[in-house]
Amino acid sequence: RISGESYTAAKILGMYAISGSFSDCGKMFYRLDLHRSSSSSIRPWNLIISSFVRMGLSNQALSFYFKMLCYGVSPDVSTFPCLIKSCVALKNLRGIEFLRDKASSLGMDCNEFVASSLINAYLEYGKIDAASHLFHRVSKKDCVIWNVMLNGYAKYGAFGSVVKGFSAMRMDEISPNAVTFNCVLSVCASMSLIDLGAQLHGLAVVSGLEFEGSIKNSLLSMYSKSGSFDDACKLFRMMSRGDT
Q: What keywords would UniProt list here (predicted)?
């Protein structure tokens, strides 16, 4: 019998799961010690669940989760994002709410990884208020969760919230990435916010992202839609020189 705490066994299990060899994976899995509820016993369960999700087998992932609970094994912050993704794929809003309640009971709903998945799920259903409420409860926000929320605001036309959110993000000293720039620049283009767009251009230069493919296009679009054709032409000429 192989102990559930065996790192080697978990690695072999992961190899089978990633390769899609679920038969061999299942045989190895049931040789592990699944009856213990220590934190180490969650690893093989997470490997199986995440593999089901990656293969698009959402129902199987959820079924395996409930089997895990029957064994007395508690989910962790790596379990919930996979399960939430499964519920989104199945268009199962009740399942998402159930998982949030479970995460909340374990004090994990405001973890940045779990919250990011929940926020994204709420936005898929157009529940922007629920997403925003959860977002503001998260104390430790990284660039990823900011991007999820900012893109959600932009998707549903809450452009003012994107601008305010970006300002708050900068005040929290979170460095924007390409996803952030593209989101906020698209809002600047829609609202003709040339001053903010120019500030973003400067920040992109300082960040070394000015000539990143998608940002170049976003900057051109922002200048053009804002009526600043001279700036658009200057940027285009700089881009052309950089490409040659």
A: Repeat
pLDDT at residue 35 in the model: 45
Same domain (yes/no): 132, 155: no
> Does 47 lie in the same domain as 94?
yes
**Is the per-residue pLDDT at 130 higher than 90?**
yes
Q: Final residue of a domain: which of 140, 164, 191?
A: 140
- DSSP string over the chain: ---TT-HHHHHHHHHHHHHT-HHHHHHHHTTS--S--SGGGHHHHHHHHHHHHHTT-HHHHHHHHHHHHHTTPPP-TTHHHHHHHHHHHTT-HHHHHHHHHHHHHTT-TTSHHHHHHHHHHHHHTT-HHHHHHHHHH-SS--HHHHHHHHHHHHHTT-HHHHHHHHHHHHHTTPPP-HHHHHHHHHHHHHHT-HHHHHHHHHHHHHHT-TTSHHHHHHHHHHHHHTT-HHHHHHHHHHHHHHH-
- pTM, entire model: 0.83
Q: Are residues 108 and 17 part of one domain?
A: yes
d(CA 174, CA 165): 11
pLDDT surpasses 70 at 234: yes
- Please identify, among 119, 140, 161, the residue that sits at the C-terminal boundary of a domain: 140
pLDDT digits (tens, 9 = 90+) for 22-67: 666 666 666 655 445 454 578 888 888 888 898 888 998 999 899 8
How many separate domains does the chain show? 2
Average pLDDT (115-126) is 96
Q: Are residues 4 and 99 in the same domain?
A: yes
Which residues constitute the domain of residue 200? 142-243
